[in-house]
Design goal:
With 160 residues, the protein is of the alpha+beta class. It folds into two domains: 2-90, K homology (KH) domain (GMP Synthetase, Chain A, domain 3, 2-Layer Sandwich), CATH 3.30.300.20; 95-158, R3H-like domain (Ribosomal Protein S8, Chain: A, domain 1). Helix content is 49%, strand content 23%. The chain has five helices and six strands; from the N terminus they run αββααβαβαββ. Strand 5 (141-146) and strand 6 form a beta hairpin.
Length: 160
Amino acid sequence: MAKTTSLKKEIQVLAVKMFELMGVDASVDISMTKDGTEGENVYQVNVEAEKEKGLLIGAHGSTLSAIQSFLSLAIRQRQGDWVRVVVNIGDWKQKQEEQLTLLANQAAQRALQTGQPQRLYNLDPSQRRIIHTMLSENQDVETQSQGEGSERYMVISPKS
């Protein structure tokens, strides 16, 4: 518990300092949850920055992903272990998850109706993870990622 508290404080200090250096007026709140699929600690960094929200999210969440990667790497260098850090600016992550849930359900329905695998392209690893996790509860379809690197895509197929 003490390590969790000190790690939350360390992430808080790093995030606040990063936004200060960027010249962004932002409030940062850190919470910790357990990932249901793997039972690992996930540190949720919730950022409120009304004036710069769009700038911090970036095109398709690219700046948000960079901020998340930076915080993960900085904590890794300080702690020696990888820690899962998830950054959410405003309610962007929730909106993205809602869109991915809709996309996954539509693809699963198409797979079941046609009997054909449905391919989803242009998803980053975190988006594929969300869809894998969400559809793991569906007994009628299965998911898998195929391809390598930037050519990686997801396939949703009816279970045989």
